[in-house]
Write a structure and sequence with these properties.
Length: about 300
């Protein structure tokens, strides 16, 4: 079975079909088409990935929920199986608008939201604008508030020329994630799944743009967007929240966990001491049943 990716490139998904056996659909957006998983029947659950992953990151959670829920897992524009337009506004505001278009198209009604990495500000950016359409929130190693902390491993990827060469030329961001974002060594087949949609300079455009969109000063256009999301998080404070945190994440450290608990003191938080940033890779055996119990 083949799936067409951006750039008129046919990629054979057969090597990961046992891990990623899901039905994907595409929705036309301004500038390209968005791919999304739509599995199961029941109350809707929306899973939002980050950078440099794609809906493949949620494969075990999709499999663990689809017998009782309708599970929606989009690939953000430029990521995964979505189109990868080169001249495109890869900004937080655009990703939030794309999510709104998708959810309006699907007409899901009240939904549960699971967010990781960039999925946090994207999902929370949508949620604070539509609090009445959100039932429960699951947070996995992310932030939706400003912070002066930026690890050097990410900061160097923002440098002109060097960042282009490292992220788009050498695929360092995706390759690094398969090693540095996990505590358990990643199986070669799983590593292949993460690398599959990002095989060329063309395919890695959104990965670089996500890195550049990290707001580190008020002069950055996304700074005000994140600041506004943070101010509006109070609208979600009465919503049940489950925080599942990889304790060995060198990017979203416990500083960010404390930030969530400060804003959502009633949240149920579980810290997995031996899990990294890709917390679902390291602790899926515990996380999937916990999420299922929380949503029940």
């Amino acid at each position: 079975m083949q799936q067409t990716l951006a750039g008129d490139l046919d990629v054979d998904l057969a090597p990961i079909r046992k891990m990623y056996p899901f039905r994907t659909q595409r929705l036309a957006m301004p500038g390209g088409a968005l791919s999304y998983v739509d599995e199961g029947v029941g109350p809707p659950v929306v899973l939002l990935h980050g950078n440099p992953t794609w809906s493949f990151y949620y494969r075990r959670l999709i499999s663990g929920l689809r017998d009782a829920y309708r599970v929606i897992a989009p690939d953000h524009m430029g990521c995964g199986l979505s189109d990868k337009p080169q001249e495109y506004s890869y900004t937080l505001s655009t990703h939030i608008a794309n999510l709104d278009r998708l959810l309006s198209h699907l007409d899901l009604g009240p939904l549960d939201l699971v967010v990781h990495d960039w999925g946090g500000p994207i999902g929370m950016g949508w949620a604070v604008a539509h609090p009445e359409r959100v039932r429960r929130l699951v947070v996995l190693n992310t932030a939706a508030f400003l912070s002066p902390r930026l690890p050097w491993r990410i900061a160097v990827c923002r440098y002109p020329l060097f960042g282009d060469l490292a992220v788009r030329g050498l695929n360092a961001f995706v390759l690094g994630g398969t090693v540095m974002a996990v505590e358990r060594p990643m199986h070669p087949e799983v590593r292949y799944g993460y690398l599959l949609p990002y095989r060329s300079w063309h395919d890695r455009v959104a990965i670089q743009r996500f890195v550049r969109d990290i707001p580190m000063s008020p002069r950055h256009p996304t700074w005000a967007v994140v600041d506004a999301i943070d101010r509006d998080l109070a609208a979600l404070r009465k919503h049940p929240m489950l925080i599942l945190w990889g304790g060995k994440d060198w990017c979203f450290t416990d500083h960010f966990l404390a930030g969530w608990l400060e804003r959502f003191p009633a949240a149920d938080a579980v810290r997995f001491d031996n899990a990294g940033h890709y917390v679902l890779e390291d602790a899926h055996e515990e996380i999937v049943p916990r999420v299922r119990r929380f949503l029940a």
